[in-house]
Each structure stands twice: as C-alpha cells, then as structure tokens.
Design goal:
By secondary structure, this protein is an alpha/beta fold. It has helices spanning about 5-15, 20-25, 35-45, 90-100, 115, 135-145, 165-170, 175-180, 185-190, 195-205, 215-225, 245-255, 270-280, 290-320; strands at about 45-50, 65, 70, 75, 105, 125-130, 150-155, 210-215, 230, 260-265, 285-290, 335. Strand 8 (about 210-215), helix 11 (about 215-225) and strand 9 (about 230) form a beta-alpha-beta unit. The structure holds flavin mononucleotide (FMN). The site of flavin mononucleotide has 26 residues, from helix 2, strand 11 and helix 14.
C-alpha cells in the first residue's frame, strides 16, 4: 500500500472504509450540527501572524502534561465504541499513542477494557469516566484506573442528558454506547454537580481532569475546587447544539484559570495550524477525536501513527514558517481575526477531496 502523505488522504480512506452508520457515528453532531460547524468556523476565523528572519533550524514541538513528555502538544480524545471503526478498537489508538509518544485518553465506553490494554502500553493512559453510580461506584472506577497504571482520571461533564443525534435517529440507528444506557444509572450522570467534584477531590489523590468546560465561570469553579486540568470541550459538537466554538471560549477560560491548572481543548482540530492556534491562546494540549477516529478507520494502529506523523510535519512547518522554535514562544500576538475562505464544516480543512454527497 502507498503510504499516506496528507491528512486528506487519511480522511478519504476512512470514508471509503466505513459503512454509512459507522461514518455517521464518527462524524455526526447534535441536532442541526451548528456547534460542530462552529468549531471549524472558529478555527478558520483566525489568521496566523508570521515573523521572519529568525533562526528556525531547531524546532521542538514537545511539551509536558501530567508528568509525561508529549512529542506533540496533543492527546487522543476519549471515544466510545471505537470497535465500530476498526476491529482493533481502542487498543489500536492506545498502542499508536505509545508508539508515537503522546497520551491516550480511554473512554469507559469502548472496547477492549482498560485492564486488557494496560500490559500493551508503556505510557500511562488517562481513564475517562461517565458517572453511572454513587461515590462508592466512582471509587471502584478510580481503583481500576490506578491498577491499570493511569496517571489521571477524566470526568466528562457535558453530557448530563443525551444530545439528539438526528443523523442517527432519522435512520432509526442507535450506536452501542446509547443502547447500553441503563436509565437508573444514567440518573447519576444527570445529577452530578460541583459538590461531587469537591467530594472527589477530598477523597482521591489522583489528578483530576474535568472535560466539557465551556465558560470562564465554570473554569473558575473548577480551579477553586482544585481540578488539575480544565478541558475545554463541547464534545466535538455532538451534544449541545448552537454552542460556541471551543476555540472562541479558550481565551476567557485561560484568563479565568490564571495559570492555576493546565488547560486542554478539543473540537474540530484537523490540522497542525489548528493546534498552533490553540497553544497560542493558552492551551497546553489539544485533544483529537474525529481525526484519530479517521486514522484508525483508515489503517488501524498504523493509520493513527501516520496521522500523528503528518500532524507533526504540519505543526513543525507552521512553527518554522511563523518564526517560532518552541511552543512557549507562542502567545495571542501571533494571531489575528481573519475571514474564513471556505464554508466551514468538518471536512472543509481537506478541500482536495470530493466527498461528493458530503455523505456525512
Ligand atoms: C465517535 C466518538 C465517540 C466519542 N465518545 C466519547 C466518550 O466516550 N467520552 C467522551 O468524553 N467523549 C467522547 N467523544 C468526544 C471526544 O472525546 C472529543 O471531545 C471530540 O471528539 C473532540 O472533537 P473532534 O472530534 O472534532 O476532534 C466522542 C467523540 C467521537 C467522535
């Protein structure tokens, strides 16, 4: 097989491999999919200010997060039911993250289970949890994470109710993550609130990541309660419709956090330029969801590694052309508002591919 040279080719291969239900599961959003498109609109509405005549022969795009060195400032975002995209499922992503040198977030709703993957990676994972039980249930989950060598747990909090995925509903298709839902257990997730966060911090030593923060106010509360990583996310536009682009709220969150916690972000990141924009606005690392899903669907573990390698080339090229050699040189001064040149949607970063019916 000819090696992928661009992310566009990986997206095309993923589309060719996946049946319509799996493709829709990977790429769909809530209701009108406005949030999903806004994530792209936000990223596409930022221009890069280029500085020249600086020595950029040595570029280092690595960073530190939760005591680990990341070869790039990215992590694989937690995704449920990865086995729908490729039989190897989450194991392909975890192994690829280890092979390349970034941290994998593992969803509690994917296969294989975290215990099975632990012996297959040398790098601590982050276990992502949806709360489906009381404090004792949560404590059991944390123990599983610790026993599997995870260096943090991540609570996803932007899913107090299921967002309406009309792309699936109109086909009467229910992805497995939504079939498993036992209503009695889901009640805990709906009720989970800042008091639970406080109780968690009081009871556990493990670093805590709260994923799904979208406002300065909530970021401030999270920091007051001692959250270690504030993760700005709107679930890739899969939950609340008509939400704001994550990149548009990053600056206010960074100001609210005021250096007291690390900041992650995800939502629509499909290019190296996207990642550089987030770092300039104060993020320490970017979560990659659909892009990693596409790499997995395109060619399993190798497809994910190749996705990260191409992303690295894009990030390094972007930094060098901007006159930057290290991530800590970036700041908002490298950015300015700029009008998008294409109608934003998930695949608009890949204009050389004809997704004919945009079949997604
Ligand atoms: C197929 C799929 C499944 C997902 N499942 C989960 C999940 O189980 N837990 C979670 O916290 N987020 C889940 N997410 C959201 C991602 O973690 C992440 O927030 C989102 O994908 C980021 O946006 P992006 O896909 O545009 O990169 C899922 C996303 C996708 C695409």
């Amino acid at each position: 097989m000819v090696e992928f040279q661009t992310l566009q080719e990986i997206a095309r291969a993923a589309r060719a491999t996946l049946g319509q239900n799996a493709w829709d599961y990977l790429t769909g959003g809530g209701e009108s999919e406005t949030t999903l498109k806004r994530n792209r609109l936000g990223l596409d509405s930022i221009g890069l200010r280029q500085h020249v005549c600086r020595d950029v022969t040595q570029i280092d795009a690595s960073t530190e997060l939760l005591g680990q060195t990341l070869r790039l400032p990215v992590c694989t975002a937690p995704m449920g039911s990865l086995e729908l995209l490729e039989p190897v499922g989450a194991e392909g992503v975890v192994r690829a993250a280890d092979e390349f040198g970034v941290t994998a977030f593992v969803s509690s709703l994917t296969k294989p289970e975290i215990e099975e993957m632990a012996p297959k990676t040398n790098r601590p994972m982050v276990y992502q949890i949806y709360v489906r039980g009381d404090d004792a249930w949560v404590a059991k989950f944390v123990k599983r994470a610790v026993d599997a060598g995870c260096n943090a747990v991540c609570f996803t909090v932007d899913l107090a109710l299921y967002g309406r995925r009309e792309r699936d509903m109109m086909k009467r298709y229910r992805p497995p993550t939504r079939q498993a839902g036992d209503l009695a257990a889901f009640r805990f997730q709906t009720a989970w609130n800042w008091d639970n966060v406080k109780r968690f911090k009081d009871a556990h030593d493990i670093p805590l990541i709260i994923k799904g923060i979208a406002t300065a106010e909530d970021a401030e509360t999270a920091v007051e309660l001692g959250v270690d990583v504030v993760y700005v996310s709107n679930h890739g536009g899969r939950q609340l419709d008509h939400g704001c682009a994550t990149i548009d709220v990053l600056a206010e969150v960074a100001a609210a956090v005021g250096g007291k916690a690390k900041i992650m972000i995800d939502g629509g990141f499909m290019r190296g330029t996207d990642v550089v924009k987030a770092i300039a606005l104060g993020a320490h690392a970017v979560g990659l969801g659909k892009l990693i899903g596409m790499g997995l669907a395109a060619d399993g573990q190798h497809g994910v590694v190749r996705t990260l390698e191409i992303l690295e080339e894009e990030i390094t090229t972007t930094l060098g052309l901007m006159g930057v050699t290290r991530l800590d040189q970036l700041d908002p001064g490298f950015l300015r508002p700029a009008p998008p040149v294409v109608e934003p949607d998930l695949l608009s970063p890949y204009p050389f591919i004809d997704f004919t019916d945009k079949g997604y």
